[in-house]
TrEMBL record:
<dbReference type="Pfam" id="PF03553">
    <property type="entry name" value="Na_H_antiporter"/>
</dbReference>
<keyword id="KW-1133">Transmembrane helix</keyword>
<dbReference type="InterPro" id="IPR052180">
    <property type="entry name" value="NhaC_Na-H+_Antiporter"/>
</dbReference>
<keyword id="KW-0813">Transport</keyword>
<feature type="transmembrane region" description="Helical">
    <location>
        <begin position="123"/>
        <end position="153"/>
    </location>
</feature>
<feature type="transmembrane region" description="Helical">
    <location>
        <begin position="39"/>
        <end position="60"/>
    </location>
</feature>
<comment type="similarity">
    <text>Belongs to the NhaC Na(+)/H(+) (TC 2.A.35) antiporter family.</text>
</comment>
<feature type="domain" description="Na+/H+ antiporter NhaC-like C-terminal">
    <location>
        <begin position="12"/>
        <end position="218"/>
    </location>
</feature>
<keyword id="KW-0472">Membrane</keyword>
<feature type="transmembrane region" description="Helical">
    <location>
        <begin position="204"/>
        <end position="221"/>
    </location>
</feature>
<feature type="transmembrane region" description="Helical">
    <location>
        <begin position="415"/>
        <end position="432"/>
    </location>
</feature>
<feature type="transmembrane region" description="Helical">
    <location>
        <begin position="336"/>
        <end position="359"/>
    </location>
</feature>
<keyword id="KW-1003">Cell membrane</keyword>
<feature type="transmembrane region" description="Helical">
    <location>
        <begin position="80"/>
        <end position="103"/>
    </location>
</feature>
<feature type="domain" description="Na+/H+ antiporter NhaC-like C-terminal">
    <location>
        <begin position="237"/>
        <end position="431"/>
    </location>
</feature>
<keyword id="KW-0812">Transmembrane</keyword>
<feature type="transmembrane region" description="Helical">
    <location>
        <begin position="12"/>
        <end position="33"/>
    </location>
</feature>
Length: 437
C-alpha cells in the first residue's frame, strides 16, 4: 500500500514540470498556427514556468514557509548559482568582444583563407570557429547569415545547402564552446569540469565534423571568387585567448574574466572607449537575464520533484524502455536513455539549453545508476540537445536562416548535415566504446 502511495506521489511531483512543458509547447504551436514569427519565443520561458511553480507549491502539501524553503534550497543550490554566474560572465565577454568588432574580424579572417573551390567546407569551418568563440549559435547565424546569403547569390550555390552549412557550423560551436550556455548547463547539472567535457565532446564531434567537411567538399560547385572585407587581427585574439586558457584547464571564472579584460584591451587599440566597455558588460549581463532566471526557477522546481521521488521514477521508466539493450550492456542502455531524454525534452521546448536544464537531474541519476562518468553524461546531454535543435524546423536557428534566405525552415533543417552525422557518430561511439565512459 505504501509503495502504491509513493508511486502516486512520484507521478504527481512530475505534474508541474509537465505543466511547464505543455504550456510552453502549446502556446508555441498555437502562435505558429497563427503565422506569428518565432512563435516558440513569444512566451518567455521564465514566465511560462510560473504556473508550474505555483502548482508545485500546491501539490507539496506543506506549510507555505516550508515550500518556500524547499524552492529556495533548489534555486540556491551551489550548481545553480555557479551556472548563473558563469552565464553572466559569458554574456559580458560576448558583448564586449562583439562591440569591439571581433565578430566581423573573425569572419573576414576566415574568408581570407578559404579557396574558392572550398566555399562550403570553408564556411562550415568559419561558422564553427565563430560559434565556438562566441558561445552562441544564434549570434553566429546572425553575423554570418547575411554574408552567406550574399555568397550564395553570387556563386549560385543552393540557398538551402548554404543555410544548412551555416546551421551545421553554428551547432558545432554551440555544442563545444566553453562559454556556450548549453555547455555551462550540461557541466553544472552533471557536476564535471568544462575542460573534461570539452575533451570528451571533441572525441565525438571532431570525427563528425571531418565527415561533414568531406561531404561539403563533394557538394561544393564550380569555384567563384568572394570579396573579403578588411579586418584587424588584434580583434581576433580574444577568442583565441579564452579558448587556449580553457583547454589549459584554468578555472572558468578566471578564463572568462581574463577574456573580458583582454577583449577590451584589444578594442582600445582601435578606438573602443572605457564608457562603452562598462555599458557593454552590463548589456552582456542583461542578455543572459532569461536563462539566468529560468535556471533558478528550474532549480527550485527540481527540488520539489526530487523530494517527491519524481527523478527516481523517471529514471526507472527510461531504464524500462532501454531494458532490452541493458541485457547486453547497462552503460550503453543508460547512455541511449540520456540521449532520448534530452531529445524528447528539446522536441517539446525547442530550446537546447532549457532542455538540458530540464533533463539534467534525471540524466545525472541515469549516469550514476549506469556508472557513466559525469563528463560523458554532460557530453551526451549537450550533443543530442544540439542535434535536435539544429534539425528542428520550428527551432530559432532554422527560423532565422529561413527568413534570411527566403526559404522554408524545413529546407534549412533538412540540410544541416552535420547534425545528422553527429547523431550517427555519437550512437556508434556509445555502442562501440562500452568501457571507461
Amino acid at each position: 500500500m505504501q509503495a502504491s502511495v509513493d508511486k502516486v506521489a512520484a507521478k504527481l511531483s512530475l505534474l508541474p514540470l509537465l505543466t511547464f512543458v505543455a504550456l510552453f509547447l502549446g502556446v508555441g504551436l498555437y502562435l505558429q498556427a497563427q503565422g506569428v514569427d518565432y512563435a516558440f519565443y513569444q512566451l518567455p520561458a521564465p514566465v511560462a514556468i510560473l504556473p508550474a511553480i505555483v502548482l508545485a507549491f500546491v501539490l507539496a502539501r506543506q506549510r507555505i514557509n516550508e515550500s518556500v524553503e524547499t524552492f529556495i534550497r533548489g534555486a540556491g543550490h551551489s550548481n545553480i548559482i555557479t551556472m548563473c554566474l558563469i552565464y553572466l560572465l559569458a554574456g559580458a565577454f560576448s558583448a564586449v568582444a562583439g562591440a569591439t568588432g571581433g565578430v566581423d574580424a573573425i569572419v573576414n579572417a576566415g574568408l581570407s583563407f578559404i579557396p574558392p573551390s572550398l566555399l562550403l567546407p570553408g564556411l562550415f569551418l568559419i561558422s564553427a570557429i565563430v560559434s565556438t568563440a562566441m558561445g552562441t549559435s544564434m549570434g553566429t547565424i546572425g553575423a554570418i547569415g547575411p554574408i552567406a546569403l550574399a555568397v550564395s547569390l553570387k556563386t549560385g550555390i543552393d540557398p538551402a545547402l548554404m543555410a544548412g552549412t551555416i546551421v551545421s557550423g553554428a551547432m558545432f560551436g554551440d555544442n563545444l564552446s566553453i562559454i556556450s550556455d548549453t555547455t555551462i548547463a550540461a557541466t553544472r547539472t552533471q557536476g564535471c569540469e568544462m575542460k573534461d567535457k570539452f575533451r570528451e565532446n571533441l572525441k565525438i564531434a571532431l570525427p563528425a565534423a571531418v565527415l561533414t567537411i568531406a561531404l561539403l567538399i563533394y557538394l561544393t560547385p564550380e569555384p567563384q571568387p568572394v570579396e573579403v572585407g578588411d579586418f584587424d587581427w588584434l580583434l581576433v585574439l580574444p577568442y583565441i585567448f579564452i579558448l587556449v586558457l580553457a583547454v589549459m584547464g584554468l578555472n572558468v571564472f578566471v578564463v572568462l574574466f581574463s577574456g573580458i579584460i583582454f577583449a577590451a584591451l584589444m578594442g582600445f587599440t582601435s578606438g573602443y572607449e572605457g564608457g562603452a566597455f562598462v555599458k557593454d558588460i552590463y548589456k552582456g549581463f542583461s542578455n543572459m537575464q532569461e536563462i539566468f532566471l529560468l535556471s533558478m526557477f528550474i532549480g527550485g522546481l527540481s527540488e520539489f520533484i526530487r523530494r517527491g521521488g519524481g527523478l527516481d521514477y523517471l529514471a526507472r521508466k527510461i531504464q524500462a524502455v532501454t531494458k532490452l539493450v541493458a541485457r547486453f550492456n547497462r552503460q550503453v542502455a543508460d547512455q541511449l536513455g540520456i540521449a532520448v531524454l534530452v531529445m524528447a525534452s528539446n522536441l517539446c521546448i525547442a530550446n537546447n539549453t532549457v532542455s538540458i536544464i530540464v533533463a539534467g537531474p534525471i540524466a545525472k541519476k541515469l549516469a550514476q545508476d549506469g556508472e557513466i562518468s559525469a563528463k560523458r553524461s554532460a557530453s551526451l546531454l549537450d550533443i543530442f540537445a544540439c542535434v535536435l535543435q539544429g534539425t528542428l524546423p520550428y527551432g530559432a536557428q532554422a527560423l532565422l536562416l529561413g527568413a534570411t534566405f527566403g526559404i522554408s525552415p524545413w529546407q534549412v533543417s533538412t540540410s544541416a548535415f552535420y547534425c545528422f552525422i553527429l547523431a550517427i557518430t555519437a550512437v556508434l561511439i556509445i555502442i562501440l566504446r562500452r568501457h571507461k565512459v
